Amino acid sequence: MTEFIPAAKPLIGDDERAAVDRVLLSGMVAQGPEVAAFEKEFADHFVDGLPVIAVNSGTSGLHLGLLAAGVGPGDEVIVPSFTFAATANAVALTGATPVFADIEPETFTLDPAAVDAAVTERTRGILPVHLYGHPARMTELGEIAAKRGLALYEDAAQAHGAALNGRPVGTFGTMTMFSLYPTKNMTSGEGGMVVTADEETARRVRLLRNQGMERQYENELIGFNARMTDIHAAIGRVQLTKVDAWTETRRSNAAFLDANLSGVTVPPVAEGARHVYHQYTIRVEDDRDGFVKALKEEYAIGSGVYYPIPNHRLPSLAQYAPGLDLPATERAAREAVSLPIHPSLSAADLDRIVAAVNALAGAGS
Fold first, then answer.
1. Within 10 Å of residue 168's Cβ, how many Cβ atoms?
2. What is the dihedral of CA 58, 60, 62, 63, to 10 degrees?
3. What does the DSSP 8-state code read for residue 343?
4. Predicted TM-score (pTM) of this structure
5. Which is it for strands 52-55 and 336-339: parallel, antiparallel or unpaired?
6. 214: confidence class by pLDDT, cuts 50, 70, 90
7. Which domains does the chain have, with CATH numbers?
8. Is the pLDDT of residue 364 over 80?
9. pLDDT at 365 over 80
10. Helix (H) or strand (E) holding 176
């Protein structure tokens, strides 16, 4: 029987298990020295040493980061609709209004022209997503933010190590979130990181994650319990030592697929962009869903259809976008499919993926 190739495969090994055991033996498992060390190491590794605050999930990171940055009722924040709902959810949870703008067909990230057209007198900021590991158009979005007097945030949940013109994602916006969910390019089991160059915003995130207090029983704000545990931080610290090699494997796998796939649209990379391939997302223009079904049933290869219902049409978020037309978003929702790209793929796996995709594309699935 042909062995199934999964769409994603978290990599957690003996080193991570040993780190967890070390924490358990220490008796200090809540937020403590492991979290503090992880924050410092993550900051130095990915965001040029900017302040980093660890929280219990990426969604918490976005929510608390936006609150700390002053986003709230009466504000609007421009977001993409072609992404996971957590981005718009975090805006809505602050009491602000998510405003959906269309994406660029090539990179699946916010279209600066669409963003500029969506600005109103209530717009507080712009929140692009570096989707699938490809950086958004931060230069152009930054220019719009500066021209319009807006804040620029970043959702880098899928983009650990991505960069634009040599500048790492997470260093463009006034607030950034990285996710550490198990399927991301690195994980802490679960968790998120908030990055901000503003010390007061960083302090507010630290308060908000810990019931609004820096010192026990001296609550300054109404806050949350969104702390990361030392258990999760210990896993993340080990993963930090491995993520660069994993990323280079992802990039090498992508280069192989780029060179050998035919009959589908492979993911382009914008000039100056460093893509870290959280997902390798192609377009199948004719019967994407049939293609996915055949890939699994005939070739034992998994794939991912992410965001088949754009956020602006979800029952939970449609209230913010009555009658909105986002043609590039709708097309991506119909055509996009992510192939396996994870570091566990063997050369034989890659050959199988190429052969299967080319056969299905040639046959029209």
1. 22
2. 160
3. T
4. 0.96
5. unpaired
6. confident
7. 14-240 (3.40.640.10), 243-363 (3.90.1150.10)
8. no
9. no
10. strand 175-179
Alpha helices per DSSP H over 119-242? 138-148, 199-209, 230-240
The pair of structure tokens assigned to 183 is 């399927």
149 phi-psi bin (left φ>0, alpha ψ -120 to 50, beta other): left
Q: What is the mean pLDDT of residues 195-218?
A: 94
Structure tokens at 210: 């810990």
What's the CA dihedral at 77, 79, 83, 86 to 10 degrees? 0
Three-state SS sequence of 47-64: CCCCCEEEECCHHHHHHH
DSSP per-residue codes, 139-172: HHHHHHHHHHT-EEEEE-TT-TT-EETTEETTSS
Q: In the numeric block, which tokens belong to residue 230?
A: 């030392």
CA 19 to CA 140: how far, in whole Å?
A: 42
Residue 207 has φ and ψ, to the nearest 5°, of: -65, -45
Tokens for 239? 């993963």
At 288, list the tokens. Answer: 């994407």
Answer yes or no: are the C-beta atoms of 99 and 320 closer than 8 Å. Answer: yes
* Residue 226 three-state SS: coil
| Per-residue pLDDT reduced to its tens digit, 25-36 | 998 898 899 999
Which pair of tokens denotes residue 171? 């260093």
What is the token pair recorded at 36?
A: 């503090």
How far out from the chain centre does Cα 1 lie? 35
H/E element, 337: strand 336-339
Give dist(CA 207, CA 222) in Å, integer.
9
Residues making up the chain, counted from first to last: 365
Q: In 3-state terms, what secondary structure has residue 261? A: coil
Tell me how far apart the alpha carbons of residues 8 and 291 are, in angstroms, rounded to a whole number. 18
Contact 339, 282 (CB under 8 A): yes
Structure tokens at 348: 């034989």
Average pLDDT, the chain: 96
